[in-house]
Amino acid sequence: MMTIATAPIVERLHTSQLADTVRVDCPAKTNLTLEVGPTHEEWGGRHALDTIYCAVGVYDTVTATAKAPGTGFSLELEGAHLGDLASSSSDMRRNHAVLALFAMAQEAGREPDVALTITKRIPVGAGLGGGSADAAAAILAINQLWNLNWPMERLRTIAATLGADMPFCLTGGLAHGTGFGEQIEDILDDSPLARELQAQGFTGEVLIGAYQSQLSTPEVYHTFDVVGAGSGDRNHLQAAAISLHPRSGQAIEAALQAGARHAFVSGSGPSVVAFVPDSTTAQRVIDTWVMHDAADRIIRAQAPVTPIIGVTQ
Ligand SMILES: C[C@@](CO)(OP(=O)(O)O)[C@H](O)COP(=O)(O)OP(=O)(O)OC[C@H]1O[C@@H](n2ccc(N)nc2=O)[C@H](O)[C@@H]1O
Ligand SMILES: Nc1ncnc2c1ncn2[C@@H]1O[C@H](COP(=O)(O)OP(=O)(O)O)[C@@H](O)[C@H]1O
User: Does 2 fall in a domain?
Assistant: First the structure.
C-alpha cells in the first residue's frame, strides 16, 4: 500500500492570493472495518486500532474569516441538527473546531483572531466523526487563511493531538488507520485494495440511518471492553453500540433484507450505514426504514469523497 497524503480539492485559489474568508466543506467518516486491540497507557488509555476509514458525502461547512488583531475568536453554529451542541451548557471553547483553531494559532505563534462559522449537517454524536470533520475543516481553513501552506504531514501531526479521527478527516477518501487511529496511509483510487473494496460494494451510493439520541464514544469503548466484538463483525464496536441502542440493530437487519450489500453501525454508532448497488435498492431500504421506524433521519450520499476548500477574496 503506498503512502501519499492526497490534497483536498481547492477551488478558485491561486497560491499568491490572500483570502479574507476560507470555506471548507468537510465530509463525515465511517469505518469499513474497525478492529479494536488492547488499550495503551501512552495513548491516554485508548485502544490500538486497525481500521479502513471511508469519507461519506454528508458535509459540514466551516468558514474562517480574519478578525482585527487582538479581538479574539468567535463561533457561530447553524443548522437544524445541532444535537447536544444546541444545549445551553455546551461550551464553545470546547468545540472541536475552536480547539483546532487554538492548536494552529499556538503552532504558528499567532493570536486566534478568527471568526468561525459551522453549518452542521453531519449528525452529532453519531459515529460519523462530525466533530473531527469540523476540526479538520478549521485546520485546512486556517492553513489557507494565514497563508501558512504547511504540508499535510504537519497538519496531521497537529490534528493527532486533538483526536484519533482528525488526521484522516483532513484528506478523506479511503485510508488505512493504525496506532490509536491517527496513523494514516491513504488508499489510492487505483490501488488493488481500492479496487477490491469497490468490487465488494463498499463504494458508491450509501444511506445513513441517523437518530435523535447520541452515543458517547468512551462509553461505547467501555462497553466493548465488557461485551467484546460480535462474531463476524467487521466493526468490533457494533455489538457494544447495539447493546446500548437496539434500533441500530433493527435498521441493519431491515437494510440487509431490502437488498443492501452491506449494513453496519458507523464507528461507535448509533448511526447505521448501508451501501446499496442501485437507486431501486436505495428506495427499498428507505421505504423499509420508514415503515419500521428504524431511523429518525435518513441521508442519501456517495462514498468515498474528499474535503473541498473554497476561497473568497
Ligand atoms: C470510534 C471512532 C472510530 O473511527 O470514531 P467515532 O465513530 O466515535 O466517530 C474513533 O476510534 C474515535 O475517535 P475520536 O472520537 O476522534 O477519539 P478521541 O477523541 O481520540 O478519543 C475519545 C475517547 O474514545 C476512546 N478511544 C478512542 C480512540 C481509540 N483508539 N481508543 C479509545 O478507547 C477513549 O475513551 C477516548 O477518551
Ligand atoms: N464541532 C463539533 N461537531 C460535533 N460535535 C462536537 C463538535 N465540537 C464538540 N463536539 C462534541 O463531541 C461529541 C462527539 O460528537 P461527534 O464528533 O459528532 O460524534 P462521534 O464522536 O460519535 O463521531 C459530542 O458530544 C459533541 O458535543
Answer: no
